[in-house]
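ESCALATION

Customer reports they have been waiting on this structure for their group meeting. Please prioritize. Original submission:
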Amino acid sequence: MKQVMIVPYDSIWQHLYIGEQLRLKQVVHSTCNIYHIGSTAIPGMDARATVDIALEGHIDCETLESLGYELICKQEEHTLYATHDHKFHLFVYEPDNEELKRRLKLRDYFRAYASERERYSQFKVDLAKVYPFDFSSYKKARDIFLTVIEEKAMQWDGLHSIKKYS
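Update from on-call: job pushed to the front of the queue and completed.
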């Protein structure tokens, strides 16, 4: 069983994202948007060392398989792919998806509020100690905590709207 590992922020995550974004842009339609999401997209945020990427648009499974991605699961809001080593998780969303808008807003909120970012980072570190080999329980507890912060982020109007940037 794999251990839940939360590590200090590493600026290499931004560079890994940029490299993977370039690889994806070579095979996706120009109408697709690609975003860096999740904790590795937030400077200063402790995280699991997996770079989460969102692709907004349509792409076929074969194309992603040719890049080394494999289908992990299909959910109502998105389809999740991962590279074999789980260095990258790719969340594929339909255009104008509400869950993606919430994820981007939450990312931007954490980027803007260091105190919330630090509180969430510490919570994840503590949670990984409680559930070191139980990712499912870790994720459930983390998601409950995130629901509260997400509510605050959705009330926040610091950006006036979701910015379409990586």
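Sent to customer with the following note: The longest helix spans residues 135-155.
Escalation resolved.
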